[in-house]
Amino acid sequence: MAGMIEIRNVSKAFGGVQANKDISMDVPEGKITGLIGPNGSGKTTLFNSVVGYHPINEGSIRFQGREISNLRVPEIARLGMLRTFQQTRIYGKMNCVRNMLISVPHRNLGWADLFGKQYSAEDMDKAERLLEFVGLYAKRNLLAGELSFGQQKLLEFAMALMNDPKVLLLDEPTAGINPTLINGLIDRLKRANKEFGITLFVIEHNMRVIMNLAEHIYCLAHGQMLADGSPEQIRTDQRVIDAYLGAH
Ligand SMILES: Nc1ncnc2c1ncn2[C@@H]1O[C@H](COP(=O)(O)OP(=O)(O)O)[C@@H](O)[C@H]1O
Ligand SMILES: [Mg+2]
Fold first, then answer.
1. Across all residues in the chain, what is the average pLDDT?
2. 48 CA to centre of ligand 1 in angstroms
3. Are residues 96 and 156 in the same domain?
4. CA–CA dist 210, 37 (Å, integer)
5. How many domains does the chain have?
6. Which atom of ligand 1 is nearest to the CA of 86?
7. Does residue 17's CB lie within 6 angstroms of at least one atom of ligand 1?
8. What is the pTM of this model?
9. What is the distance of C-alpha 197 from the center of its chain?
10. What is the pLDDT of residues 28-60, one digit of tens each?
């Protein structure tokens, strides 16, 4: 089956560093797809290419059949593809609800906020509903900077959902989160996929997490595709095991 995202023969270099070389993969609609690989193997670079953060040197990236490798971040976001970061990007000096409201750039809520305009009741409701969904409703009026790191990641996830994405790219969503919150986050990711129908493409360093989440996993090493398969196939793939052992 063709992917919702089709990545074909993508290469990206930074000066002399070949961060991605001849990468091809498919992210099927409605599923959770995983991307793993040792540190420095090119995972974040690939995400940056897909969401239009930087141009690629070679290859093609299609989203729902449309070539997007020539588009930039805001255009791709408008098509319904969003990403979250390895480091959270929230406004620590604003409360959680306000972070939610300003996270919808195409409605220019940022400007509405600067000029002290009121948000629509619909957006307020949605913000509160999604904060409830990620378990932050009781903290909705706290400054985002007062949340724990794990809670900030949940807030960032809720902020992305505020935009009704078709597909969400998550870069190490569980990094730095304590085990209790990790289980809660995995549960929320699965529910966002099943109940809201959001396609997920997840970079994850924690093997237990990605095995539990993804239906299909791609593994990069040294900027190239090393292996892909079901969690079980990846878990037992000697090339994957060697790549991770060699990295530590
Ligand atoms: N903006 C950049 N400028 C120069 N080199 C970069 C840049 N971004 C990534 N790299 C290099 O590309 C390689 C892949 O990095 P990255 O995609 O961040 O890997 P991963 O996310 O798998 O840890 C690394 O060697 C990294 O140093
Ligand atoms: Mg990375």
1. 91
2. 10
3. yes
4. 11
5. 2
6. 21
7. yes
8. 0.92
9. 15
10. 999 999 999 999 999 999 999 999 999 999 999
Judgement on whether residues 185 and 225 belong to the same structural domain of the protein: yes
In this structure, is the dihedral angle defined by the CA atoms of residues 121, 126, 131 and 135, taken in order, positive or negative? positive
Tokens 């996929």 label which residue?
Answer: 193
12 and 34 in a single domain? The answer is yes
Ligand 1 pocket residue status of 42, Cβ below 6 Å: yes
Which residue minimizes the CA distance to atom 1 of ligand 1? 14
Pick the ligand that lies closest to the CA of residue 86: 2
Ligand 2 centroid–CA 55 distance in Å is 18
In a domain, 94, yes or no: yes
Q: Does ligand 1 lie within 6 Å of residue 43's CB atom?
A: yes
- Shared domain for 173 and 211, answered yes or no, is yes
Instruction: Report the separation in Å between the CA atom of 119 and the middle of ligand 1, taken as the mean of its atom positions.
Output: 39
Q: Is residue 32 part of a domain?
A: yes
Tokens of 216: 């299909």
Q: Angle at Cα 197 formed by Cα 192 and Cα 109, nearest 5°? A: 70
Structure tokens at 41: 């193997």
Residue 246 has pLDDT above 80, yes or no: no
Q: Do the domain assignments include residue 85?
A: no
